[in-house]
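SEVERITY: medium
COMPONENT: batch folding queue
REPORTER: lab tech (J.R.)

DESCRIPTION
The queue accepted two submissions in a row. Attaching both inputs and their returned structure tokens so the on-call engineer can compare them side by side.

ATTACHMENT 1
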Amino acid sequence: MAEPRTAPAVGLDSRRGWRLGRTMLDLRLRLVLLVLLAFGPPAALLVTSELQWRRDELGNARRELMRAAALAGAEFDARLKSARLLLAGLANVAAVRDAQEPRCSALLGELLAQGAGLGGLFVLDLTGRTLCSATPGPRGLSFADRDYFRETIARRAPTVGMPLLARPDGRTLLGLGHPLHGDDGELRGVLVTSLDLAAFAEHLAAVYPLAGAAVTLIGARGEILFRYPDGERWLGQRLPDAALVRTALASTLGTAAEVRGLDAVDRIYALAPLATETGHALRLALGVARSGIDGPVNEIMRGDFAAIALLAVLTLAAALWIAERSVHAPARRVLDLEHAERARVLSELAAREGRMQLQAAALSAAANGIVITDRDGTIRWVNEAFSRLTGYSAGEAIGSNPRILKSGVHKAEFYAALYRTVLSGEVWRGEVVNRRKDGSRYTEDQTITPVRSDRGEITHFIAIKQDVSER
């Protein structure tokens, strides 16, 4: 009696086991497919967004370097002009013109102590012999072999010489000469000084401390006048065939390029000419290592992909564990898990994309006032020196127009000519009488430089201001 009832039970259990096994197999395959579907689109979105982030970071680096190079060029112009104005002013002082000692040396010493970046002040006779000097030392030191001394004598006009590598300290100097005329108009001597190009480049390296950064000054013949870091290795070498030097010498206007540096490190460089007003053009190369830009992006991408892979494995393992123990409700649980993980991954991606939009721009305070405006003239940034010069804080100045400084001294034609110059893409230099916040007037020497976008469109203007009221 028992056997007829046993056979159907065994057959039913077999069919149920087969159906259960098939159901579990189908469920496992569906779970694997669901995990792939859940993590595939976020992974693809992650790749796309982070590749775009890489492109954005490269573009930002190019723009920041070009802005830094434009500011450096304007500061170099200001330093050179300041030195030439100093020589012109001293040439009219009788004690200097006539080399009246000890008054002449004392006056030169006081001015040298105040003039940052100057390499000395000397009054020379027509043979190049030192008559008085800002620094103590033996009289009679000869400058007869200096090109700027000889050219000043020949032209009877202010001159800027070729860069000179000074020994033994290895400083690179740019000599300047100014003729000294007597009351009868005859040439009586030459007043000379020099700009310390190494000090200028060291200032740039300190102001723009970017990761893997390199600052290089290149002469017109391809000689290395300064390099940061490891400058001693390169100083004085002529390397016209080096990729960086060749690219820099071929660049007549400011540009950005990805070039292999002297140390064989690939960098993005901003290349800018530094005109010395006499044709001895220098080239400034500000560079940041490509690895310093790609490295953080690559590290984050590796971390993100590892996290997604780990999440996918954990998700699949958890889903299979649940499916093994809960056959009647696996689909619902897997779907819930898929939705939760999808929401979390997308939330992380959205937060990361928000962070990628942030840009960091840091401009250190310079000795001269600096103003950055957009094309419409709205002030977008000022430094502390501007606030000290004008009395307007950054909060008061930003968002306003430089017209807040108008003194009423200049006519409309003056400003119209200024705007025509800068809107045409040229640099404007001149003196302007402005009014401070407290109503007092002052005279400033101003240089306005247009800044172009990658498409060549003028987007901003950078103004360098120096108070010359006491001149």
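ATTACHMENT 2
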Amino acid sequence: MTDPYSHPQSYRRLNQSLSSSSYASVAAGATSQSSPARFGALSHLLHPEDDPPTRSNMTSTKSPDSWSARPYLSTKMPDQDSPPSPPLFIRPSYLRNSRHVERLETQHTVELAEFDQLRRHPQSASSSQDLSANIGSATIHRSRKDLIQDYIARNPLRTNAPKKLPTCWSDIDKWPGLELLAGATEVKFTGSTKTSDEAAAIRSDHPMPKEVGIYYFEVTVLSRGKEGLIGIGFSGPKASLNRLPGWEPESWAYHGDDGFSFSCTASGKPYGPKFAAWDVVGCGVNFETGSAFFTKNGVFLGEAFHNVRGDKLYPSVGMKKNNEHLRVNFGSAPFVFDIDSMMEASILPHLGHDFANQVQKQRNRVKADINKTSADTLESARDETMLVQELVAQYLAHDGYVETARAFNREVRDERKPLHMDSDGVELFDPSQDLHATKRQSIRSAILEGEIDKALNFINTYYPHVLEREENRDVYFKLRCRKFIEMICRVNDLSTQDPPPLAPKAAGKLPHPSNGTTFDHQMELDDQLHRESRAPIIPPMPVPSPFNPGLRFGDGANGADGKHDTMDTAPDGVQLVSSATDSEQLLVDALEFGQELKAEFSDDPRPAVRKALDDTFALIAYQDARESIVGGLMEGKGRVEIAEEVNSAILVSLGKPSSAALEKVVAQAEVLVDMLSSDGGAGTFVNVRRDCLQ
């Protein structure tokens, strides 16, 4: 079961990541379904310490925002009195265009919001208390241990989640004589060795994901004795930690005492210069070619290893002498070596080393393979241009862009006439399809404007049995939650802005229909996506609930009698409340509707439903909910998502596919790229959204 109130990163399903999809399901056409102030002050987020300064002997061409790092969640349990820290996410600058990192960032955004909401509102983890009691009660601060346990319980391991990037050294996967410092980004040898072959090694908290294609990190030598032994490289999980990396099976490393490279054996080969204190050594692995390279102080040293294989390879370092001290940079700060330029095709020819040219050749080869793929077998009766035109036309019609679809059809016909091609062009509609498309357009327009009650009336008028289906229960649930969110949006906008001047009703303006049977056929969805996201305040219209006939969609927003206070209308048609009293009444109405919403779904045992209710109700705890940790619920993309789900449900009820053919093509391409990327292959150099849809 999918989360009934998930938050997509993009506004269109074409750009959503498909981490939970499979090739078989896509090919078969299957679809998946500021600090609070209003009711008391809560603690603020703690900011992490600034990153330590990094040494650089080159002029960087990177933009200031080309790298980012966020606070991290330590791998061990800290003191009970210390405040909880949100999960860490590091986006190395050279991976900013990686589709794998895009998926990681989307997942991290959700995890960060969940963790911060739980820390600020520990009581929201329980939905058994009365909603109004939750509003008025004070927050009970709990220990860090309890909060982290709650976070883990509410966020079980995601089996289909993208593999994480290394963020720090592991406090578990290390030799006991090593001490971790500076948030586990520094490691210092404080023990002793008994034999000449004994040493102390450590691995990172996560392996390098092959899905990124090329992974790179740097290590700064903060301290090294004259006879010290330091190895920098990577190893598998079975490599021994009481010997230097490179000496053991499943380990590869570059050693600083002699400049040799070691590949799974104690017999090394001459490779590069020696390194000592304050040298910066970088290590990179190319999973597509199975090769690895090193850098020293920003200078590329060439490939050190070939035929590198292993399911899980961790960045690893080892040392042998007391007080030897290393600092790692996994991408939280700019690198000394210009790895960003090496990954950018436009700058590669100017670097002058073979590895950069090799990366460019890999990219060119992958793109050439894609471009030379024939489309003849996809549709024998159409050439490639006509096939693309039909995919676009069907997508526009499917998603309700009626006028745009018609305009596209006319343009295609006009374009084909001078070429003496088929004058019929791309056929879009028959009369029945046109009628349903207009109805679906009206429903989507209402949702995109935040007028949920109006959309519900349209649904029950045109497609009365759609929401009664058990498979659409989640769609109905999301619509109910969205109505509550829109009510809070209106309350929030009124409470955070000065009251606008009142204006008489504009001449010629017709009131909103009360029976839901008339609407403006000229509303076009293309314009809706660019309109202001704040919805006009309109009287909701009563509609029976398909799953609870005793409830009315309008109840709670209007009171039991369905009456409304008098409101003025501005010249642009947006109705305005006339006083602060009306704003307070809107809040009361929202709370009443929230009670109804909670009562209606309180018996639903699904964790996703309970979490969605908790997240939705958390909006009432903030003076300015848009700036809160749950403010993302109020963004326009939430309207787009539910509008698409309603549209799909209606199409299925009409015996039509829930997804457009173009969406299925893109989804299938994403799954195929995932398959090609899983082992570090050619798919790692392809980003479907960036390379094909932009």
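NOTES FROM REPORTER
The chain has a mean pLDDT of 71.
No errors were logged for either attachment.
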